[in-house]
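Blinded run. Sample ID left blank on purpose so nobody reads anything into the name before looking at the predicted structure. Input follows.
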Amino acid sequence: MIRNYEAGVSLAKKHNIKNLVILEENISVDDEVRKINNHIKLENVNVILFEITERKLTEYKGLMDNVLKCCISFDGFVPEGFRLVVNWDVDADKLFCKGKYPETIFLLGPEYVVLPVEFDAGRIKRRAYRSKPQRLLIAMGGADELNITGRVVEYLVKNRPELEFNIIIGAGYEYKDDLERFLAGAFVKYQVKHNITNMFEEYMACDLAIGAGGLTSYELVATRTPAILIAAYEHQIARCNFFAQRGFVKYLGYRDFDVNDLIKSLDGPFLIAGESIIRVEEIRGSVDGLLERYRN
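Blinded prediction complete.
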């Protein structure tokens, strides 16, 4: 169930999401709650998961009680009756006063990030690495309105032309034509891919990645991909530092970066996480346990 925003609807269609309910863009909270409750009854829903950033979840009053309510919350507020709260920010534990909610399970921290279904733990564990990187993935995410992608590509084409460049751009990236003109005149092996639906295969096919500090950073660490991060937004800085301090990535800075640091970072060394830090089974177990409690 999503609002009728172009970005959200396009994303849902790209991933071929079934049973999609699209709400009016400016629907009121009261009307939204009524729609949710009607859908719960109509479809015999057992679990409902909220991820809403536009409004506080505490505004959603009057939700049906005979359903397990879970949420992904980034603001520290927990609505009454919610039994599972997930927040994968590195400082998530500081946001919530867990003692106020004795009946609620909190899964807080980067180890609880929700990953796409394609992520295969067995393949990640068996992953092999080249002694010297050859295939470079560049994925700065979303619109990349600062065109960090273009700057990185320009520097590396000039300084490391022997690399194979796999460049992922999002729907809102406005510099695609400039990027492709530049690459067409360069003597390098490259691909530019647009709106990729399965990033797992892109991570697994590369030897090294350069990305931003959004969800991409979690996915790079989860797939044990040697990575260099550049924070595109201020809220990504803490996340980049968190992974860099543990040696999982090289962090070059917030928006601006030193070209020499970028070039030197390509050769590592990188500390690859021995085991996945993502606790998928714990998330699944918590939901299963809560469902069992509700059924009884």
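Unblinding after everyone has recorded impressions. The chain has a mean pLDDT of 89.
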